[in-house]
């Protein structure tokens, strides 16, 4: 981890997740600093696993972070990581299906999100990923200058960006492709 909790490590679920490598996470956050999206950000981390991406955002100046995962083990580990790092006032953990959670944002948005991470299992279908991305495009869900970060296998096709999201960049790190998009 970097930022205010720099040098501290976090727990990862014993099974069922594919943690983002430290190298990839550093590269993602370097780009996000370049996009100037972290300070004061409202962040959503879907398919959060251990919560590493959302926790890193919190440690780098995000004011509100929601970690969402459907796996009970991942939710428990994420909650422990939040407590261990002392980020309970900034980060909340939700046990829910990412698609259902995103659809709920579309029907009852709160404050617009500045940054959204999606790191789904590589075997998640393109249709399911497209549905989650489409939900983020509902009015009021994303801030006008928001950034959406999607991690996929380099063997997977580029996400089918729905109307309302426009790709910014793609960067590959080993077997991981990281896509950046913004509201159009």
From TrEMBL:
Molecular function GO labels: methyltransferase activity; nucleic acid binding
Protein keywords: Methyltransferase, Transferase
Name used for this protein in its record: Methyltransferase
The organism of origin for this protein: Xylanimonas cellulosilytica (strain DSM 15894 / JCM 12276 / CECT 5975 / KCTC 9989 / LMG 20990 / NBRC 107835 / XIL07)
Superkingdom, natural source: Bacteria
GO biological process, one term: rRNA methylation
SUPFAM superfamilies the UniProt entry points to: S-adenosyl-L-methionine-dependent methyltransferases (SSF53335)
PROSITE patterns named in the record: N6_MTASE
